[in-house]
Structures are given as structure tokens and as C-alpha cells.
Amino acid sequence: MASKKSVKAPYIETKQGDRKFLLTKLPASIVTEISYAAIRGQTEEEGAVQRVLNQGRINSIKAFTLQGGDYPNAVVLNWVSQTNKITTANGTLGFTTGDGLAQLIDGQHRIAGIKAAIEENKGLGKLELPVVIYRNLSTKECADIFLSINTEQKPVPRSLVFDLYGVASESVVDHAAVRARDIAMSLNDTGSPYEGEIKMPGAAKRRGGIPLSSAVTGIKPLVEDNGVFEQIAIKELELQKQIILNWLTALQRVYGENWEDKDNVFQYASGFLAAMEFLRLQLIPYCNTQESFEVKTIETALKLSGALIYQNEVKGQGGAEAQKKIYARLQEAFTPTKIKASTKFKF
Predict the structure, then answer these.
(1) Phi then psi dihedrals of residue 41, to 5 deg
(2) Rounded distance, CA 302 to CA 337, Å?
(3) Is residue 173 predicted with pLDDT exceeding 70?
């Protein structure tokens, strides 16, 4: 057990509605020592509102911390210790460290990840964290605050997240999502079947078109570590872009003058996602065996011309269900034909 320390820190008392809290900053080593997660369903103590920790998220936050990530959002605590209370005077709060002094209302994964990072790099214990401290809240009050943070304060749209990956620092981005974003953005270029149809954050709402978030979500499994492209040793961005473009061009040719029809299922997110899943699971393995990713190779294997898929076939269905049906229709039209292998891949 760590030796007890006397802690003093500046604070601001803030009142919102009927509740008051102390806003302060504390070293990460102190926050990780005094706080704990009271898991709902595992303890009957007052204030238990937390869920079971997810080790994957902890590992991700640990890595983010070790890379120098920022934590501008406050950790929210409910101080519950009756024997080790906080003192406040002249703008300074004080307490003596110890275990189990304050429940985590918000930030349990952050604290667990930061604690794991400190175990690997002791210097990170000096990292200053903004902290909000409530005192002696009931379970009802903790639940109110937890729900306010996790439901009312909604996360930013995924399209904006993916768009910002293009300008954010290396340490905070999802690299597979960045690659997928680059490919998705290229689909807006002149000559692409989706020229001008990848909808960016802030774009005016309209029927049809593919949100950037959907495009990235569909492409990402192709380009992530150990994804299908890596499995066949196609790692170059330009080759990955070309294969995806060839597949979409083959679809465009099958639809001909009906490609831009707003009843074309591939002008919608569910159709695009189904197309990317079909490319990943069926076309890339097939084309790899043929040593050809050319448009004509794909066209030869896909007999859709007499049975085009339109939006009215999936009207009223949820996104996942619509995607599943479109994929099944593509599967029905897939008639692989053996082509004489060449001496090198064709794109």
C-alpha cells in the first residue's frame, strides 16, 4: 500500500441546479489511488452506477496515454469517505490519500488505462487531470449525473470524427480509419462512380448519397491490420484504391444509364456497405485466384444485368437487414468463371 500523502489543490466551487461540486486538478497518481469503480449489480453500496470494465478499452487508453494523449475532460468523482473528508478553505482543498475514498461516476476506463500506463512509465503519475468532486451523493443522484453525461451529451457524428482524422495528430488517430477515409474521399473525384456522392460533414441533407461515416465503415475492414488486402500482400494505397474503384466501376457499367437513378440501391449507405462486404468476402479472394482485379474480370463473374437491385426491394427495412438482403442478391448473381492465370496481377 502506498504511503499516505497530504494533498492540497486549488478549487472552484460550482453550483448547478440543487447540487454543488468542486472543480480542481490533481496528479494522475493521486486520482488513480483515491478512486474506484462501484459496479452496479456487484455491490449494494450507495452510489454504485458503473458497468464492468472492458479490458480492450483499458488497453487502448493505456497506449494512448503512453503516446502522450490529452485528457481535457474532467474525471467525475463522488467522495464517499466519512473518515477521510475533504477540507476547503481560502480556495484550497485538502485531504490525505488512501484507498477507496471516492467513487468514479465518469471516467472509470480512463483511470484504469492511465493507471496501467503509470505502471509502465512512473513519470506519467505527474500528469495533471481535471477533476470534478461531488460529496456524498445518493445512488439516484449518481445515476442522474451518469445518464446526463452518457445519454444527453451525445457524441459527435461519426462522419465528423472520420473527417477530423485527416488533420489530427498521429497519436490520436485510428490508422486504418485514416486509410479508409483517404480512399472514401477519393471516390468523390471526377470519373469515379460516386463522384460528388460521398457526403461530408456539414453538407446539406438530401436523398441518396453515401455519408462519409458509412463509406469509411465499409472500407475499413479491407485495409485494417490483417485485413483482406494485407492477407494478399496488397498494401499500397493506390492499388487498394484501384481495386475498390474497379469494383464500383463494374457495378456502374452493369446499371448503365440507371446508375444515377435514385432508386438504385447502391446510391444509399446500405447498398454501399453491402458492396464493400461482398468485395471483401467474395470478389477479392476470387480475383486473387485469377490474378486479375480488372473491371472485365469482375463483370464476367457478376450476372446482375437482368436482375438489377433497386431500393424498393429493401424499403422499410433497417440498415443491417437491408444490407444483408443486398449482399444475398449479389451472392445470387455471382457466377465465378475460371480465367487463365497470367504471369502477374492485372489491375
Answers:
(1) 95, -15
(2) 9
(3) no
